[in-house]
Write a structure and sequence with these properties.
single chain; mainly alpha; 70% helix; 0% strand; DNA binding; TetR family transcriptional regulator
Length: 205
């Protein structure tokens, strides 16, 4: 996470550094990215960079975390607009995410992120769902979900539904970048998989 000196910077200076970092992490994945390129683009001394962040990994995960926070806020808004329909919320959230990736820089940034994903980066974008988080990070989500639409017995099962939908979402995003799929192709695949889960995978006898 950023140091206090970065937090205290004027917004325009923060944005300059963030833009420079996005440009570099769009050019190359984390392990190939260069601090030299970032500070050159930002127009700051290399020493100043280390007053703001520990290293390039610190900056990279800060960017992922910032995007993750925006995703969570957007998800809440969509869930409210969908009147608690969890499945439709995931579908619409995926659609909005794909549209945001039409920005070339953002698409390249996340292409590098998803095709070089590790546990830390995945958990930064979508933190692990646990029972303990039902009373903290997920409390608002849980309160908004229309549980009467779901075939669940308790909140423990809701946690597992969220885990399954998260896994399906991640796999579909990886396919977007690995196969360079269009929005239409991506939405068709994702919607089919979510609807299969919605219907159930086994016929009722």
């Amino acid at each position: 996470m950023p140091k206090q000196t970065f937090i205290n910077l004027p917004n325009d200076k923060k944005e300059t550094l963030i833009h420079a970092a996005m440009k570099e992490f769009s050019r190359a994945p984390l392990f190939e990215a260069s601090i030299s390129n970032i500070v050159k683009e930002a127009g700051i001394p290399r020493g100043s960079f280390y007053q703001y962040f520990e290293d390039k990994e610190d900056l990279y995960y800060f960017l992922l975390n910032e995007y993750s926070q925006r995703l969570r806020k957007r998800f809440i808004t969509i869930l409210e607009n969908q009147n608690g329909d969890l499945m439709e919320t995931f579908i619409e959230s995926f659609r909005v995410m794909l549209k945001s990736l039409q920005s070339v820089e953002l698409r390249l940034f996340f292409k590098n992120a998803f095709l070089n994903m590790n546990y830390k980066s995945e958990n930064t974008l979508t933190p692990e769902v646990s029972k303990e988080e039902l009373n903290t990070r997920l409390k608002q989500v849980i309160s908004l979900v229309d549980k009467d639409q779901l075939n669940i017995k308790n909140e423990d099962e809701l946690v597992h539904i969220l885990k399954i939908l998260k896994a399906v979402t991640f796999q579909n995003l990886i396919q977007v970048f690995a196969k360079d799929l269009s929005i239409e192709q991506s939405m068709q695949n994702y919607t089919m998989e979510v609807n299969l889960m919605k219907r159930g995978l086994c016929k009722q006898k």
